[in-house]
Write a structure and sequence with these properties.
Length: 351
């Protein structure tokens, strides 16, 4: 149920749209203990970045995910001795972004791409992990754009190179298509949303590499967060029923069931220490570690406009239609205009 359907009592919102939506929902501060008496069990970075706005609680997290590195364990094992001989290092999941590019290049061949990459609206999603992993930031403490820093240029230069070892026109591929390429065994590594992979692993037509996939936190340990919350329409006439609806979905039993049955990432800490979940979900530990350093999109009203503009500029750089520095300079200038016009910057920041 989305907030566009205002005939609904309970609505769901993604964190990147919360600056536009949450102020119009009913505050839940006085009933959180009733809905989730164990509210402390929610992952801190999810709890603080999903459903909360200006110090108030408007929604409870229902699902979450972070971009995670998936890789072919069989490929890494088969090429390990060669990589060790060439570099003097074991072939393992990369710890830094330059190392990621090095491994993607090493594993790239006529029969296997070094990495699979999502594109379209996920372009910013992937690049943000590189930017933050190299110490860069999108904006400063005053919301002045700083993404066109030296770290920004370095991160985008690395990002562009990663596409050299990916299937042609990967920047135009959506999540579903990129998932399919990796699950068909076309790439050695994949920067993915694992919750979207889980339900596909048992489909033998779609997945040819089941049991041969490993998972690791992305280099730099600062992946982008995706999280959804459930809130209440202020026009709701039966508040108790709405609260019971949310309570049903966010309790420990059902967040665990949603993970195991459908791959929906749990917002609860207890899920990640649950023995059954640890046994069955191979990416559970890297996912939990990723939440510790996760970064979010800007949770303000013009968030989608900012993201869309950035995606387009990143794609220009990937396609060689712009240098990384020029693409980020244009983005910073446009972001200053948007943030000034929407009142988040009181006066235009100097170029």
């Amino acid at each position: 149920i989305t907030c566009r359907d205002w005939s609904s009592d309970v609505c769901s919102s993604d964190l990147q749209w919360e600056g536009e939506i949450l102020p119009h929902l009913r505050p839940l501060d006085d009933v959180v203990a009733q809905i989730a008496p164990d509210f402390h069990d929610f992952i801190p970075t999810v709890r603080s970045n999903c459903g909360q706005w200006n110090g108030r609680i408007y929604g409870l997290p229902i699902a979450c995910d972070v971009t995670t590195l998936l890789y072919r364990t069989d490929v890494f094992e088969a090429r390990s001795a060669e990589f060790q001989q060439l570099t003097g290092r074991p072939l393992r999941p990369p710890q830094t972004w330059p190392e990621y590019v090095e491994i993607a290049k090493f594993l790239n061949s006529e029969s296997l791409y070094g990495n699979i990459l999502m594109g379209q609206e996920q372009t910013y999603t992937l690049w943000s992990g590189i930017l933050h992993g190299l110490g860069g930031r999108l904006v400063d403490a005053h919301l002045r754009p700083v993404l066109n820093s030296d770290a920004g240029e370095e991160s985008l230069t690395l990002f562009v190179e990663m596409y050299r070892y990916a299937p042609p026109r990967s920047e135009a591929r959506g999540v579903r298509e990129a998932d399919g390429l990796f699950l068909q065994g076309r790439g050695a590594m994949y920067l993915a949303w694992p919750s979207l992979i889980w339900s596909q692993l048992t489909d033998t037509n779609r997945c040819k590499i089941a049991g041969r996939i490993g998972a690791a936190v992305i280099p730099g340990g600062q992946p982008q967060l995706s999280s959804w919350s459930l809130g209440v329409n202020p026009a709701c006439r039966d508040l108790d029923a709405a609260y019971q609806w949310i309570k049903f979905f966010v309790n420990q039993t059902n967040t665990k069931r949603l993970l195991l049955d459908y791959g929906i990432g749990s917002p609860r800490l207890s899920t990640y220490s649950d023995p059954e979940c640890q046994q069955k979900v191979f990416y559970l530990t890297p996912l939990r570690e990723g939440f510790a350093g996760t970064q979010t999109r800007l949770r303000i009203s013009p968030s989608q406009e900012l993201s869309d503009y950035l995606d387009n500029e990143l794609i220009k750089a990937i396609r060689g239609q712009s240098t990384p520095r020029a693409a980020l300079d244009r983005t910073a200038a446009r972001w200053r205009e948007i943030l000034t016009q929407s009142g988040y910057l009181r006066e235009p920041a100097p170029l």
